Structure formats: C-alpha cells, structure tokens
C-alpha cells in the first residue's frame, strides 16, 4: 500500500482491504480473527472496519458469528454486469450497421 500520497484516506484503504478479504467467503464467512490474521491488522481495527461495512450494507454478520459480503455488494456487481451487457449490445448493433453500410 502506497501511503505517501497525503490525499489518500488510510482508514478507507483499511475498510476496502477488509471488504476485499471477504471475497470468496460468502457462504461460511470469515471471523474477525481470520481477517485480522490475513491482513496483519489489529483485531480492533478490523472490528471497526466490519462495523462500518455492516452499517453500510456491504457486509453481513452471519448467524455463525462470521462476516460475509452483503447484498449491496451483489447489487453493485449486478449493476455492473447489466451495464456491460448493454454496452456489448450497443457495440454489436453498431457493428451490424457498419457491416450493412459497407455492403452498399
């Protein structure tokens, strides 16, 4: 992590690192300790990051006490996939028009 840029929020970077660590653990989740160990970050810091992410809806606290990506992350991913599909459809449409125009 490059922290020399003073316009960077180190707190935001920590929160995003915690969020990224949950990738691939949606079913069983990860414990606070698991995340702290993986990131070499103090457990209280991870707790604050997780509380922020839970409050914002990006992470969910599972019944087993672990944490997993929340519905809001899925919504962002789905919105991105939808936008890419629309872009792909538009590109295909434009390619077909170009091909049709080049035949005349």
Fold and architecture overview:
The chain contains four helices and two strands, in the order αααββα. It is mainly α and 104 residues long. Strands 1-2 form a two-stranded antiparallel sheet. The longest helix has 32 residues, at 71-102. It is elongated and about 70 Å long. The mean pLDDT is 90.
Strand-helix topology:
Elements: H1 10-21, H2 32-39, H3 43-56, E1 59-61, E2 67-69, H4 71-102
Antiparallel strand pairs: 1-2
Helix pairs in contact: 1-3, 2-3
Sum this structure up briefly.
The protein has four helices and two strands. It is mainly alpha-helical and 104 residues long.
> How many strands, which pairing sense, and closed or not: the largest β-sheet?
2 strands, antiparallel
Low-pLDDT ranges: none
Strand content: 5-15%
| Estimated helix fraction | 55-70%
- The best one-word shape is elongated
- Order of strands across the biggest sheet? 1-2
Q: What are the key terms here?
A:
single chain; 104 residues; mainly alpha; 6% strand
């Amino acid at each position: 992590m490059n922290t020399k840029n003073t316009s960077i929020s180190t707190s935001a970077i920590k929160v995003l690192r915690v969020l990224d660590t949950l990738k691939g653990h949606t079913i069983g989740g990860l414990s606070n300790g698991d995340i702290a160990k993986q990131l070499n970050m103090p457990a209280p810091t991870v707790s604050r990051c997780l509380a922020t992410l839970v409050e914002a809806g990006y992470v969910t606290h599972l019944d087993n006490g672990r944490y997993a990506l929340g519905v809001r992350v899925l919504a962002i991913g789905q919105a991105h996939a939808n936008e890419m599909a629309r872009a792909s459809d538009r590109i295909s449409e434009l390619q077909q028009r170009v091909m049709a125009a080049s035949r005349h």
